[in-house]
Amino acid sequence: MFADKYEAVIGLEIHAQLLTNSKAFCGCSTKFGLPPNSNVCPICLGMPGTLPVLNKRVVEFAIKLGLATHCKIRTYSIFARKNYFYPDLPKGYQISQYEEPICYDGYVEIELKNGEKKKIRLRRIHMEEDAGKSIHDQDVDTLIDINRCGVPLLEIVTEPDINTPQEAALYLTKIRQLVQYLDICDGNMEEGSLRCDANVSVRLKGEKKLGTKTEVKNMNSIKNVEKALEYEINRQIQILESGGTVIQETLLWDAGAGVVRPMRSKEEAHDYRYFPEPDLVPVVVPEEWINEIKKSLPELPEEKRDRFMKQYKLPKYDAEVLTSSKALADYYEQCVKYIDDYKSVSNWIMVEVLKILNERQIDIADFKVKPEHLAMLINLVNEGKINQTTAKMVLEEISETGEEPDSLIERKGLLQISDESFIEEVVVKVLEGNKENVERYFAGKDKLFGYFVGEVMKLTKGKANPKIVNEVLKRKLEEMRVKVNG
Amino acid sequence: MPVTIKDVEYIANLARLEFKEEEKEKFTEQFNRILEYIDKLNELDTTDVEPLYHVIDLKNVFREDIVKESYPREEILKNAPSRTEFFFKVPKVIQVEKPQKENEDKEQS
Ligand SMILES: [Zn+2]
C-alpha cells in the first residue's frame, strides 16, 4: 500500500552455462547427468602442479554474446583468481575475470507492456568456471561431485537499471532467448544451466542515493524471479515504513513457502582477494577474429521478427510469438515451404500447436507432427476436404502417433462431405423429424436454425461441409415457408 | 597505514589458519616490513605506464574444444581422506533444516 512512495532498484547477475564439449581449462567432458566424479582429471580437481589451458570456444561464445548485446569487446583481457574456501571448489579459488573482462558497456532492449522501449545497460560479461556440486541432504556428511567443476560459464552483469519485477522478467526472457538463438547455452533455468541472482534495494521516489541492498539467490525460473523480487521489494518497504533499517545480506528464495530466508553466512566477509591468475597469460583476441565472429552471427530474434512481418505479412504479435524461440521459428519456416497461406499456419501454430505443447509440457523439438504434415492438414481445410473441427482432432491424434494426416483421414473416413444432394437428403430428414420445431422457427424462434445445423452434423458424424449445410438448410426452410404461407 | 594484529587475524581467518599469539606478533612485524619494502616502488612515477598483468610478455595459446578422456573415478577418489563409493565426503558444510540440496548448490559462483 506504500508501494507508490517507493521505487525499487534492481541489478541482475546471470550465469549461463556454455554448450561447449569440453570444460574451460581441461579436456574433460561437460556432459550433464553422468555418474558422479566420472568427468574429472587432475586439472579440474585442482591438483598441485597442473596448469589450465583455455578452451578457444569459451572465448568465441563470450564474444558472440558480447556482440549480440552491443558490448565493447576487449582485445586484451585477463583472468583472475577469486579466492574462497568451499568443498566443491577443490582449488580454493575460482578462475574468473575481474579487471578487464572480455565484454563491457553493452545493453539489451526490452519492450514494456505499454509499448515503451527501455534499455538495460550491461556492465560486463565475463568468462569463468563453475564449481562442483555439494549434496547436503545426507544425514551426517556432505557429499561432493566434481563433474561440474570447470564447466565454462558466462556471467552477465547489468547496471542497476531495472525498476520492477516485470522488467526483470522481460530482461531475463530476452537474455535466455539470445543465448538460445546464439546456441551458446540451453537456457534451462530449472536444470540450472541459466541461473539468476538479484541485487535489490528500495528508495523513496525522487531520492538519488541508493538504499541498502540485499542479494536474492535460488530463483530457478523466470516466474520465481518475478515472485521473489515482488516479495523482497515489499519486505524492504515494510521495514522502512515501520522505521527499521534494511540489513545487507544474502537471501535464498524458498519457492515452496513463497518467502526469502537469510542464508547462513559461510564467511564473515565476502573478501575474495582477487588477483591476476598467474597460471594463464592474457587472452589476446585479434580484430580479425572478432570480425569473423560478427559475420557468423545468426539472425537474432528482433531481426527475425521483423523479417517475418515483412516476408510473411504477419502481424507483429504473431511474429513475436513465432520467433520467441528459434526452434519454433524454424518450425514455422519449414511449414510455409509447403503452403502459401502464411497467416493460417501462424494461427494453427500459435493456438493448436502451442496448446498441445503446453498440455504435454514438451518442446517443439519433441513435437511429432512434421512441418509438412501440419501444412498438409491446413491445405486440406483450405480445400474444403475436412472441416476445422476434424482437423483439430486429426492434429491431436497425429501429434501422438506421428502418422501422416491423409492416411489417418482416409483410414477413419473423415473426409468432409460436400455432396449437395446427399446433404439435402439429410436436411429434409431432419426437418421432417422436427415438425414442431420448424413451426416454432417460422413463428420467430430464429435460434433454432443452429439446432437444425447441429442435427445435420450429428447425422453426418460431423463430416458435412458446414457452409453447404447452411446454404441448403436456408433454402429448404425458405421453400417450406412459402408452402405454409402460400 | 601499518598492519595491526587485527589484520593478521583477519587474513589468517580467511586462509583458515590458526596461530599462537607470539606468531601473530611476529607476522605483524613481518607484514609491515614487507609492505614497507614494496612501498619503495611507489616512489616511481607510473602515470603513463600500462599495468602489467603478467610477468612474461606472452599471449595466450588456446586449446581446441575437444573432449579428452577423464581419469578413472577410482584414481580420482584414491587420495581422498574420506569417501563413499562415488563421492568425496566432507564434514557437513551447512545446517539444513530440511532437505534442500538444490538451494545450496546454486549459491556458488
Ligand atoms: Zn578435467
Characteristics:
heterodimer; A: 486 residues; alpha+beta; Arc Repressor Mutant, subunit A; 3 domains; nine-stranded mixed sheet; three-stranded antiparallel sheet; 15 helices; B: 109 residues; mainly alpha; 4 helices; 36% helix; 4% strand; flat; disordered C terminus; binds zinc ion; ATP-binding (chain B); Aspartyl/glutamyl-tRNA(Asn/Gln) amidotransferase subunit C (chain B); EC 6.3.5.- (chain B); glutaminyl-tRNA synthase (glutamine-hydrolyzing) activity (chain B); transferase (chain B)
Strand order of the largest sheet of chain A: 2-6-7-10-1-11-12-13-14
Chain-averaged pLDDT of chain A: 92
Average per-residue pLDDT of chain B, rounded, comes to 82
Ligand roster = zinc ion
Largest interface, with Cβ-Cβ < 8 Å? A-B, 72 and 47 residues
Number of strands of chain B: 1
Q: Helix-strand pattern of chain B, N to C?
A: HHHEH
Rg of chain B (CA only): 23 Å
User: What oligomeric state do the depicted chains represent?
Assistant: heterodimer
Q: What fraction strand of chain A?
A: 15-25%
